[in-house]
Design brief:
globular, transport, 17 helices, 64% helix, peptide transport, 2 domains, 7% strand, Growth Hormone, Chain: A, mainly alpha, two-stranded parallel ribbon
């Protein structure tokens, strides 16, 4: 079953299946906040909140999918069902784009589509990742390299999608977003078809048996001596259910989080506690699970900063990055391909690097690699922070700053994400393989929701506009900035003032020429002080905003590095 590269052919089937699924996900994600702000005309904070809730829930539902796969369906059926549900979700996004002018209908269709994408991903995501490890015998040194190769498939799809979906969907015309969503739907269908056609031929265990079928519950409920294993008591289930409910109420009412955020954050604490309470777990298994939990906590800080790519960094690319090259303006969505193509280019080098170090007994253990990943993330934000220091509103910077950030973040991701997937696969007890992969993605759920909250701190240059009292009717100003295709309007009451984002104003363009003498714009108050505060840290400009992630990722990196020696001991020989 081995190929000339030393890996089973099944790895490359999973590579292609995941590539097309990620094409679907990242193609839609590249357009998502642009669709909300340009077509549905949502403001940035609201768009970021929806984005954070969606990406958070996408990584939450793997808990459900992992449980159902481990107990009832198996990996194969879960992947097919999940893929088909996601294809339906992308089609509803296409329908939303078809009716974007009817904001109420388009929003409803969008929410239906997002719901289908969230649940479909829950069945697909943890199960395909789990199957990678099942292709290899226990203790096989190729597993880290296999997950890195698998990760290349993820990012090959993520590279192609923003370009292709962006060319058809991010054209500057709101009516075209639907074509990008339709391409994402087609990509998802290709993923399912490829998997169905080749799964029986290539998805085989090292001894030649089929993998990913329905679980043998009778076998899973007994230990190696044939004795019945203990199960979690109703008392323990009730206790952790009560803990989850108390945390949910606390996050929602006391910490003033939205319902989705409260649900995700409370479950992130309660679910790991419930799993570790299983009385059938041995001491070694519990120690290894604790390593997964501790590293997953630090991973939250990585992904909450990394996932700014889909929200605040998209705003930055749209508004304050010079995207012109040889007379052509690069679509904003295309910048989300930088990370993906860098992974495709550099992942083989990291495979060689880890192999080189392994042969010499110098390969760092997984926790050390992940602390390095966090440190590189902080460096990326430090570079762009200096690039925007002192930047005036409306001034655009060279795209080299954004390209540098994405490239350095790629190095950090290659040290953290595929290594994390491999670590969970190696440390998780077999009976909890998919469920603990779901817990790993639960940390991503928390991070993505947190990322959406942090995007709300993205600073906007604001001005005041005032209408002179001259008529009883409201005056309508047409706001048409450069490269902003759809007219956005702001209705201003006579003598009333409104605060409008600076980038949404073109002073010379007013919808009704007869109103030119009746409207004045107070240029002397061009920028209003509008600082935001995160845990006492003041954010009044882009430099402050980017430095927030430098501090967050840098501190997490140092703490994880010094904890790594203890974590390696808890891994009980698994490195």
């Amino acid at each position: 079953m081995a190929t000339n590269t030393g890996h089973p052919k099944g790895l490359y089937l999973l590579f292609v299946t995941e590539m097309w699924e990620r094409f679907s996900y990242y193609g839609m994600r590249a357009l998502f906040v642009l669709y909300m702000t340009k077509a549905l005309l949502f403001d940035k904070a609201y768009g970021a909140q929806i984005y954070g809730s969606y990406t958070g829930l996408v990584y939450l539902t793997p808990l459900i999918g992992g449980y159902i796969a481990d107990r009832y369906w198996g990996n194969r059926k879960s992947i097919v069902v999940g893929g088909l549900i996601m294809a339906v979700g992308q089609f509803f996004m296409f329908l939303s784009g078809c009716f974007f002018e009817n904001v109420s209908l388009a929003t409803t269709l969008m929410l239906v589509g997002l719901t289908a994408l969230i649940f479909g991903n829950g069945f697909f995501k943890p199960n395909i990742s789990t199957m990678v490890g099942q292709l290899y015998p226990e203790g096989d040194k190729r597993v880290d390299s296999a997950f890195t190769i698998f990760y290349m498939g993820i990012n090959l799809g993520a590279f192609i999608a923003p370009w292709l979906c962006g060319i058809f969907g991010d054209t500057g015309h709101p009516a075209d977003f639907k074509w990008g969503f339709l391409l994402a739907c087609i990509g998802m269908l290709i993923s399912v078809v490829v998997f169905l056609v080749f799964k029986d031929k290539y998805l085989l265990s090292p001894d030649g048996g089929q993998i990913g079928g329905k679980p043998d519950l009778k076998k899973a409920s007994t230990d190696i001596l044939g004795e019945k294993k203990a199960s979690v008591s109703k008392k323990v289930i009730g206790m952790w259910g009560a803990i989850w409910f108390v945390l949910l109420v606390a996050f929602y009412f006391l910490l003033d989080k939205d319902l989705i955020g409260a649900f995700i954050f409370s479950l992130t604490i309660a679910m790991p506690g419930f799993i570790i309470s299983d009385p059938s777990l041995t001491k070694i298994e519990k120690n290894r699970i604790w390593v997964i939990y501790i590293v997953a906590f630090f991973v939250i800080f990585f992904w909450s900063a990394f996932e700014q790519a889909g929200a605040s960094l998209t705003y930055f690319a749209e508004e304050q990055t010079n995207r012109s090259i040889f007379g052509w303006t690069i679509p904003t969505s295309a910048f989300q391909s930088v990370n993906a193509i860098a992974i495709v280019v550099f992942a083989p080098l990291f495979v060689v690097l880890w192999g080189f170090l392994n042969k010499r007994g110098a390969e760092p253990a997984s926790p050390y690699k992940q602390s390095i990943g966090l440190f590189l993330l902080a460096i990326g934000y430090l570079i762009i922070a200096f690039g925007v220091k002192g930047l005036e509103p409306g001034v655009k910077v060279s795209m080299i700053w954004l390209l540098s950030l994405y490239t350095i973040h790629t190095f950090g991701e290659l040290c953290l994400s595929p290594i994390g997937l491999s670590m969970v696969n190696k440390l998780a007890p077999l009976k909890f393989a998919s469920l603990l992969m779901g817990v790993w993605f639960l940390s991503n759920a928390t991070a993505n929701k947190f990322a959406g909250m942090l995007s709300g701190y993205y600073p906007e240059a604001l001005i005041e506009i005032a209408a002179v009292k001259n008529a009883e009717a409201k005056y309508t100003l047409q706001l048409l900035p450069e490269n902003f295709a759809s007219a956005e309007t702001a209705k201003v009451e006579p003598e009333a003032k409104q605060t409008i984002p600076f980038d949404k104003i073109v002073f010379s363009k007013i919808e009704n020429p007869e109103l030119k003498g009746q409207v004045r714009i107070e240029l002397e108050k061009q920028q209003i002080e509008n600082p935001k505060s995160f845990l006492g840290y003041q954010i009044s400009n882009l430099y402050d905003f980017f430095m927030l992630f430098v501090f967050m990722a840098g501190i997490a990196s140092v703490i994880l590095f010094f904890l790594s020696k203890k974590l390696v001991k808890l891994m009980e020989g698994v490195v």
